[in-house]
Structure formats: C-alpha cells, structure tokens
Amino acid sequence: MDNSVENSHLVPVPVLHEGGLVRVVVPGPFLEGFDYRIDQAVLPGQRVCVPFGRRQVVGVVEAVLGKTRVPDDQLKSVTEVLDPAPLFSDKLWTLLGWMAEYYHHPLGECLHTAMPGALCAGKPFQASSELKYKSTVHGQPHLLTEEQQAALARVTLGQFSVYLLEGVTGSGKTEVYLQLIDRALQAGLQALVLVPEIALTPQTMERFQQRFAVPIVALHSELTDKQKLNNWYFASTGEARIIIGTRSAVFAPCQRLGIIVIDEEHDLSFKQQSGLHYSAREVAIKRAQLEGIPIVLGSATPSLESRYHAMVSGKYIHLTLTQRAGVAKPPQIYVIDMRQQPLYHGLSRPLLEACQKNLAAGGQVLFFLNRRGYAPVLMCHGCGWAARCPHCERYFTLHLHPLQLLCHHCLTTQTVARQCPRCHSTETLVDVGVGTERLEAALRDYFPQETIVRIDRSVTRRKGELSQRLSEGHSGKASILVGTQMLAKGHHFKGLTLVAIVDADAGLFSSDFRALERLSQLIIQVAGRAGREDRLGEVYLQTHEPTHPLLNQLIQEGYPALARSLLQERAAVPWPPLSYLALFRAASKNHRAEAFLKQAKELLLTLASENLQVLGPVPCVLAKKAGYYQWQLLVQSTQRAALHHALKIVVRQLYEIKSRGVRWSLDVDTQEL
Ligand code: ZN
Ligand code: ZN
After folding, report:
1. Residue closest to 593 by CA, chosen among 635, 549, 627, 550
2. Any idea what the CATH number is for the domain that residue 543 is in?
3. How many Cα atoms within 13 Å fall on the side-chain side of residue 516?
4. How far is the C-alpha of 302 from the C-alpha of 453, rounded, in Å?
5. What is the pTM of this model?
6. What is the CATH number of the domain that holds 94?
7. How far is the CA of 587 from the centre of ligand 2 (A)?
8. Overall number of domains in the chain
9. 376 Cα–ligand 2 center, Å
10. Residues 342, 489 share a domain
11. Which ligand number lies closest to the CA of residue 414?
12. What ligand has the least distance to the C-alpha of 429?
C-alpha cells in the first residue's frame, strides 16, 4: 500500500555535502529555532527528529545555515530526516512565516497549528487508503438572477482580489460560489471553501457532491487523525479538487489553488481563541494574495471590518445580492416589550399566543436561547446563598439531565444540594433564570400535543444524537425546536415559520463594543431561517429595552443601515476597523499575572508614541477561571505599523522574563474583550 500512494511531487533532493548545519524550529515557547548538525541535504519545510533536552522531538527545518554561533562541542545532530522533500509549497511556507511575524508567535507553534496531528507526531506523510469518491452528480447549475450574474461577472480568476459577497438570506450566495468554483475546476485548479462548524452541516458536503464529479475532501476537527492526514495528503497531491473545512483548513497544502471561498465570513469561529490566536479569514486573504488568486467572503451580515473595506477603504470589491430567490419574502420582525409582563418560564403571553396560532396552522417554531442547562443559578430563597464554582467564582448552572451543577467555564461538576449549606434550610432552594433545558420542559407542559427537540452543546456528547435530533427538525417531525446559537448556523428547516428570540437583552446590555454587531448578525441569521415559499415568516424578539434606537433601526431599515450607524459610533472612539487592537492575557494562581502585565505595560510605555494607547491591566470579565486569576492588557493604535513595531520589541522582552507560574498569550486583532 505504501508504494502505491508514493508521492509524485515529493522528489528526493540529492545529498550535496556532509557536515551541514540547519536551524530547526520545535513546538514550544521559543521565538528562535535551534541549530543542529545534519549529514544530508535538506530544504526548509522538511520535518526532522532532533534531540531536545532529554527528549527526541519532531521539528521542522527553518533554514539551512553556513555557520552557527553554537560551540562545536555543544552542537547536536539531527537524528532523522522524516520527509524526502518539504511539506509546504513555497507560497504556503511564506504564509506560515508571515503568520509567525504578524501574530508575534513562535514559528514552531504556527507549524504545529497548521499541520495535522499525525504529522506533528512524526508519522509519515502518506495516505493510508486511496481517495474514494462517488459523484452521483445530479445537480444542475441554477438559472441565475441578474444580480447573481453581475456578481459572477466581476470575479476574475488568476489575480488577487478580495470580494465581499453581501447577500440577504435566500439570495443564492451558494450558487455564486458553486459557479465560481466550477470555473476554477474547468481551469484545472483546486478550490478551498471555509465554513463555520462543518461537522454540524453535512448538507454543505452533500450540496457540493451533488454538483461536481470531482473528489471533494473535508478537513475539520471531528475527523480522526488518520482521516485528517489522508485528506491533507490528497489536497497536496492535487487529487482532491475541492477542500471544504473549518478554520484550520486554511492551511490545506493545495498545490494548484485557484480560488478561496469563506462562507459566513463574519462568524466568530474563524478566529482561534487559544494558543495561536489567528483569524482564518485574515490568513486566507494573505494566502490569496501570495497565490495571486481571488478570495470571496460571503455573508448576509458581513463583519464591520469587511464592510468597511468594501464600502469605505476600497480594499475589497463589494458584490451585493438584495433579492431573495423565488417568491419567498423576508420575515416580519416584532419586538415584545417584556417590562412588567407576567412570564411563563421566561416566555411572554403575546409570544405564547403567536406560537399557538402558528402551530395550529401547521407551522414549525424555533425558540432561540443562548443559555444551555436548566437554570443559570441555584439560590437559597431564605438567606440568599447561591451555588458557585469554587475555581471560577461564577454561578453553577443547574442541569437536570443528568442532575448536577455544572460550571460552564471550567466544566467542574457538583451534586445538587438538597439543603442550603449556609442556613441549612431544606425548603428554600430555588432555581433562578431560564436555560434551554427548562424552556424545553416548560414548552412540553404548555404544548403537550407537539413534538419538541432541543439542540445545544449538551446533546452533542453522545454520537449520533445530534444528527438524530436535527433530522427530526429537518423532516418536520418535530414542530418545536429549542436551541442555542448552534441552530442559527446553516440549518434550513423547511417548515419553519416562526422564530422566537427569547432573550435579546444579553446583547443589548453587554459592555463589549462588538455585542450589538453580534446580536444583530444573530437576529438576521435566525430570522433568515423563518418563512416558506407559501407563507411569510414571523420573528418575535423579547426585550426589556424595546425602544433601543439601534435595535429599531435594524428592524426597520435592515442590517446595512445599522452597520453604517455602528461604524460611525466606532469611528468616534476609535474602535476597529478604525483602529487596531492587541490584547495580552495572563493567568496565575496568585498575583503574578497582574504583576507580569504591569511589567508588559512599562515596557510598552518606554516605547510610548502618540499612536499607542495602553489600557489596563484589568481583571478579565471572567476574573477567575479554574483556579487561575485572569488579567488583560489592551494595546490600541490607529496605525497598524506602530502597533506591530511595539509588539515586536515587547514580545521579545517578555519571552526573556522568567515569570514562573504565569501563563500568558497575545491576541492580535482580538475579537472578544
Ligand atoms: Zn440559605
Ligand atoms: Zn469553574
């Protein structure tokens, strides 16, 4: 088997001379690589096994050297060369180097983020099976609307441009992607498609498979190590013509990439929130630039960053689809004033009545609540005691299935007390607030005739359970769906005619300057799920602030108008995209995290320029997590170059500081404050 899949493009390089030197990057907190002797010729991008301390580790050759500062008697030798040729094309290698520099992150760590786990572990770069594909192609290109035709006509293959495809839900963005990809395939090129949460949307794969008679592979975190390695391999040989994946698929080693598409480009899942805090959208744009190819960012509710570049800075080309395909009309949005309303487990009477009417007419209803579990707090009505996680100092969430208190921040569990630990009363423990489990139970009582399914993270643990529940929703067997934002992404429920946003207040009252952008994207996304060809959709939004001017602008004038207002607000501060942010985070079991960030601040202030604001350090919103105190330091500038200049110097100094017990990270272009 090994020989049958021998890699055609990995041509072994001849041995040039003996006794050479290489710099090797290894995973870990090391900004620089380490020098080793090597007795065969290699190129940057080949994996090697090297002695490191007392261990052998897998590293990647960063450069071939003429000389080294390491004294001869301390110089160790490469144990083994693992690849006959570099794993990465020149362009991908350049991209990874750019990423290390842009995110001020060790190259060794960047490479480990980019490679499948099997390659990080030193496994051979080969496929364990052949690429299978069906292709049963029965989909036909659709007749295009004038807007779709105009959008397609603007995109040119073979040259770099960023296109923002802003299209209302149902306007046929996917058809535009498909026809663009078809063009790339006809030209013998590969296409890379990034989507949020592919594991939840097998229909994305299906839709592509029905249309194209070419091998298509997926790359996402639900695959086994073996599957991931195989698919990465098929991308590198060019056998896989279309690669569909989540965030990390941006590193797929395609040799003949012709186009990149990012669907739902505004989605937060494209930004990695730990380790290397990269944005797959920004990395993909850089990749397209290096490859000299077009990249299409699609969304019904583009991020303000992308809209700004399409409409103000002129960096992106703006393509718009304003008409829904077919006869479906956009849904009607109603705001329900919750103030002084009697509530039934968080649901107001007007909402329950509208649901009743809708269900009686054969419609399907979706309740959206971004809080899983039964109740967010378990409290003593007698003395005011509330159950908190000892490691995070946050409230435990009460879950009924299984019955336990669960900390949503560190996943600590506790049994549910029958007696208040403070006043010892056994009569007064009450659950406060509404989570999806409670909502589901309340709806079962209120609508006993209906079939109800709940979809949130809690049901993804058992294999097959999620797809089972989703199919009950898709087939229409379930008339009521209850879910978190997992339900807002990419699902199409044919019978859905009413969407209820149970609690819009979390977004309206948040201190994060992006909260309103996120809330409005969510409202438009879930609203897009409502409505059928024969029946207008309805969206009900419960809030204690029904007169919020921006909320009303969203409802009356739509997302583009709201986005303009939000951009004006941000320009006044200025917040991104009118300025650039980087956030240092540090955590420790003691005061050291705060002290560490104070030190970072001092270093930044010595570089002080008018163009640099340093804010903090302040405790994170989640001030304590899993026993660690968390602090943050925000650096802001209106000039990207000034910000990065300062970060480059300071990060280098911070790596030198011995800060025992402090975990720290830098988040460039942070999305969450
Ligand atoms: Zn008590
Ligand atoms: Zn906790």
Report:
1. 627
2. 3.40.50.300
3. 20
4. 30
5. 0.91
6. 3.40.1440.60
7. 14
8. 5
9. 13
10. yes
11. 2
12. 1
